[in-house]
């Protein structure tokens, strides 16, 4: 379960960083369209993979319910961090990864 939450979180971070608006909050460089597309595709693949992990571990009905249950607060958390403290997204991501492995 923890691994699927981590995969969901990383996929949402990648999807949000594929947008120029949020990428500029993290990085001063300009986001190239090719890199933006690559980040978006990678984030989408990870999000689909997280659905597979949840369904594989918990079954189809409970797995999808848990996936949506985990997706909602993570979307709210990432949107609040990007809105109010965009520079903290990467350090918070590393902290989240460390907490997940403990």
Q: Measured on Cα atoms, how large is the radius of gyration?
A: 14 Å
Shape: globular
Helical content stands at: over 70%
Report the portion of residues in β strands: under 5%
Low-confidence stretches: none
SSE diagram, text form:
Elements: H1 2-17, H2 20-26, H3 33-58, H4 60-84, H5 89-101
Helix pairs in contact: 1-3, 1-4, 1-5, 3-4
Defining key terms:
single chain, 102 residues, mainly alpha, 85% helix, 0% strand
Protein architecture, described:
The mean pLDDT is 91. This protein is mainly α and 102 residues long. It has helices at residues 2-17, 20-26, 33-58, 60-84, 89-101.
Structure summarized in a few sentences:
With 102 residues, the chain is mostly helical. The protein has helices at 2-17, 20-26, 33-58, 60-84, 89-101.
């Amino acid at each position: 379960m923890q691994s699927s939450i981590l995969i969901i979180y990383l996929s949402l971070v990648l999807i949000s960083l594929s947008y120029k608006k949020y990428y500029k909050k993290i990085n001063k460089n300009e986001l190239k369209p090719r890199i933006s597309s690559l980040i978006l595709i990678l984030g989408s693949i990870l999000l689909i993979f997280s659905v597979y992990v949840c369904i594989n571990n918990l079954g189809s009905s409970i797995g999808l319910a848990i996936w949506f249950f985990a997706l909602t607060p993570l979307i709210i958390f990432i949107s609040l961090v990007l809105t109010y403290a965009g520079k903290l997204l990467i350090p918070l991501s590393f902290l989240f990864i460390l907490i997940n492995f403990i």
